[in-house]
Amino acid sequence: MPSWTPWTVTHVVTTADRRFGPYLDDMNDLLDRAERNEWILKPGLKPVGSADEIRAALRDCASYELCIIDLPGAVDETGGAWLGVHPDGDFVDLVELASGTWNAAAVVLTNCHGSRDAFWEQLRRINARPFTAVGHFDAAGMDDHTPVGAVTAILNQADGGDEYRAFGAAWTFLGPDVTRPCRSWAVELLTPATASAHCP
After folding, report:
1. What's the CATH architecture for 9-197?
2. Which of 3, 8, 170, 177 fits 187 for a cystine, CB–CB 3.0-4.6 Å?
3. Minimum mean pLDDT among 5-9, 17-21, 57-61: which range?
4. Taking all residues of the chain, what is their mean pLDDT, rounded to a whole number?
5. What ranges make up the beta strands (E) of 76-117?
6. What is the pLDDT at residue 184?
7. Is the pLDDT score of 133 beyond 60?
């Protein structure tokens, strides 16, 4: 038995945009390696090709500690945060997800405006515990493999479910060298909106 606690991981990924194939191959290779090394339990790969499949996969995130969400997405003019299967396809507004239903310690959003306030506010509403969030301010390029490095750091340095060490690992990987292509990536340790509502 390993001396650390493995993570439970889900990987929600679009099947409608094959341009991200090389990046997804790298992420899948990482998760396969992590499973062999017992850093994670068997990952829950969730390929999605429609808005209904996105809704089901996002609801299923409630069962996992690390949620890697590789979907196109954007913030609209009303402040809504959307995720879809393709930049021009059907999208799902995160407001559709019930409050306090996730129990993730870390959420990694890629290929969308995942570090903007609208996304993080929705994640704070959906998640029931403090958690590390990693996202890009715009939409990362198809050749940007930064999330693979961030997830590697989290799995290497944090026990499963440890949001604080996950934050430290992602911060160390993303933060110090602003000359790297990942300079538009951000990481935050967020508290659930329900916790904030009860603060004096």
Report:
1. 3-Layer(aba) Sandwich (3.40)
2. 170
3. 17-21
4. 86
5. 81-84, 91-93, 106-110
6. 82
7. yes
Q: Could you give the CA distance from residue 115 to residue 185 in angstroms, rounded to a whole number?
A: 7
Tell me if 117 sits within 8 A of 78, measured CB to CB.
no
CA distances from 180 to 1, 109, 185 (A): 37, 19, 10
* Residue length of the chain: 200
Neighbours of 85 (CB within 10 A): 23
The whole-number pLDDT of residue 142 equals 64
> Tell me, what amino acid is at 85?
V
| CA distances to 8, 22, 93, 177, 199 from 193, in Å | 23, 36, 18, 31, 10
111, amino acid identity: N
Which pLDDT does position 151 carry in this prediction?
97
Q: Are 67 and 35 in contact (CB under 8 A)?
A: no
What global pTM score does this model have? 0.90
What number is the average pLDDT over the span 74-88? 82
Residue with tokens 């916790």: 195
Q: For residue 53, what are the CA distances in angstroms to 17, 83, 99?
A: 15, 12, 19
User: Rounded to 10 degrees, what is the CA torsion of 144, 131, 188, 126?
Assistant: 80
